[in-house]
Write a structure and sequence with these properties.
about 375 residues; alpha/beta; Aminopeptidase; six-stranded mixed sheet
Length: about 375
């Protein structure tokens, strides 16, 4: 009898080991992302981040939405004070107060609010982001701000390793999460502009190494598929989740905000836009040649461009004209670039500005206008 019990115990243990091995093998081969891509279905991933370890709670949330059919990527920033009905009982709680171990509660609440299935998540801390940035050999970022620049950064093109990238994002005025969104998009557009540099890193071995410290329900194969889709994307859209901040500091989304989100943002991911957008431009003269801002204003307005402001730039020794996209819209940037014949273009997001595009005229453009 004793031998029988031992034999049964050994069989049970062996069965568990084999079952666990089979599950792990099947999981390693799983690629739901590739299946969704084949079906041309929208792929949604919640990214949660934090600078500090805090009981599996996070302070930064963004929703990445990829449309494989159109090759578009949408980024929705979700304020940490956003109210989610995690318990489906009408008692909303801040999203940053929900333990990510209960991801099914968060995904179900966001699905009810946004009408999107969000099956995947990735959570990372600043040390993870710093490590991954270093593994991809950093990034080149154009810095435009005239003040509040870190001592190690200067006006113009800068090389940022992982540590500098995080300092750039975090060193915003009043530690505002909304200003941080702008700087995150600076980094995103920098990566997109130099995508060919990063394409060689998209291989299974590298991704397995880069993602080993992350918490996610995605497999290495699925992360690899997502990375290919992101690098191959043709357009990037981004937005702050529409809503309003209540007196108690909670960010809420009503039916009107949901409709705005659907009509003004989600539709961009699934339809081909036609027609020229209304572009708001500010023009500054970066030279001592008088009248250049006015001449550029007149030229653009003849082409139907809305010039909301023109004047003089603080540095009047600019040799090359530059065009800066401040709202994260490459199409608008390209439109103005073509109209002015200027290739010196950058993305430096500043959502507080009224204009979409900032044009700073240098001596090169001055010579052309005076011909």
């Amino acid at each position: 009898m004793k031998k029988l019990i031992i034999a049964l115990f050994v069989l049970i243990v062996l069965g568990l080991v084999i079952t666990n091995f089979v599950i792990k093998m099947n999981l390693s081969r799983r690629n739901i992302v590739a299946q969704l891509q084949t079906e041309n279905s929208m792929i949604n991933v919640l990214i949660a981040g934090s600078n500090n370890f805090n009981d599996n709670r996070f302070a930064f949330f963004s929703l990445i939405s990829i449309n494989p059919d159109k090759g578009t990527v949408g980024i929705t920033f979700i304020p940490p004070s956003y109210s989610v009905d995690a318990n489906e009982d009408g008692s909303g709680v801040r999203i940053d107060s929900v333990d990510l171990d209960n991801y099914s509660l968060i995904s179900s609440a966001l699905e009810r609010d946004l009408g999107l299935k969000i099956p995947f998540y990735i959570s990372l801390y600043s040390v993870d982001a710093q490590r991954i940035t270093d593994l991809i050999e950093g990034l080149d970022l154009f810095i435009f701000e005239e003040k509040n620049i870190l001592p190690s950064l200067s006006f113009g093109m800068n090389y940022l390793d992982g540590e500098k990238s995080l300092k750039y994002i975090n060193s915003v005025e009043n530690n505002s999460i909304f200003y941080k969104y702008d700087r995150v998009m600076d980094v995103v557009f920098s990566l997109a502009e130099n995508r060919e540099k990063y394409r060689p890193f998209i291989n299974r071995a590298f991704i397995a190494h880069a993602s080993e410290t992350l918490r996610t329900n995605l497999t290495v194969r699925e992360i690899e598929s997502l990375a290919h889709l992101a690098v191959d994307s043709s357009r990037i859209f981004w937005t702050l989740l529409p809503g309003q901040l209540e007196e108690d500091g909670i960010y809420v989304m009503d039916d009107l905000a949901r409709n705005v989100y659907k009509e003004s943002f989600l539709k961009q991911l699934v339809i081909d836009e036609t027609g020229e957008k209304n572009i708001k431009v500010t023009i500054l003269n970066g030279t001592t040649i008088s009248g250049l801002a006015m001449k550029t204003r007149n030229a653009l307005m003849r082409d139907g461009i809305n010039v909301v402001q023109f004047g003089t730039y603080s540095d009047q020794k600019l040799t090359k004209t530059m065009i800066i996209d401040q709202k994260g819209d490459p199409d608008r940037l390209e439109t103005i670039s073509v109209k002015l014949g200027v290739e010196n273009c950058y993305h430096v997001i500043d959502s507080t500005q009224l204009h979409d595009i900032l044009v700073i005229i240098g001596r090169d453009q001055g010579a052309e206008l005076n011909e």
